[in-house]
Amino acid sequence: MELTDYTNCAQLLKIIGHPVRLAILDSLKDGEKCVNDVCQLLKTAQPNISQHLSVLRTVGILNVTENGSWRCYSIANHEMIKGILDLLNEFCMKKQREAKFAADNTGAP
Questions:
Q1: In which element (H, E) is residue 63 found?
Q2: CA distance 103 to 109
Q3: What DSSP state is assigned to residue 74?
Q4: CB contact set of 52 (below 8 Å; sequence gap of 6+)
Q5: Is 21 exposed, middle or buried (0-12, 13-18, 19+ CB in 10 A)?
Q6: Which of 67, 53, 58 is nearest to 11 (CA)?
Q7: Residue 18 vs residues 3, 50, 106: alpha-carbon distances, Å
Q8: CA-to-CA distance for 11 and 22, rounded, in angstroms?
Q9: Tens of pLDDT, residues 1-41
């Protein structure tokens, strides 16, 4: 890969690297949801969710469909985002297991 490819990859990771954006993507991995659905799932105010959705849509990570006053979002490249989320989940679960193991074995004879 060329350096510009790595730069583009880093930009993508930077954009999705925000905790709210990761949670949004995770909430959309099983299919399209409207803004209010995402707000309820994440227990976050609509203006904040809308701002993050806008960033993800602007860079092409999300698609939007409009039906009257309703805006619903879906992941544009589902395979890629699902792969990233799966890797992150695997990494985080491994870290949690390691931390639990270390805590369970602290002070053992």
A1: strand 62-67
A2: 14
A3: E
A4: 18, 20, 21, 24
A5: middle
A6: 58
A7: 24, 14, 33
A8: 15
A9: 888 889 989 999 999 999 999 999 999 999 999 999 999 99
